[in-house]
Amino acid sequence: MSIWSRLGFGPAGTEGASSAAERDTVRRIVDELDQLPLDRARYVATFAFVLSRVAHADLQITAEETRAMERILVEHGRLPEEQAMIVVQMAKTQSLLFGGTDNYSVTKEFARIAALEEKLALLRCLFAVSAADRSISSLESTVIRQIADELGLEHAEFIAVRSEFRDHLAVLREDRTRPPSGD
Question: pLDDT confidence of 175, banded at 50, 70, 90?
Answer without folding.
Answer: very low
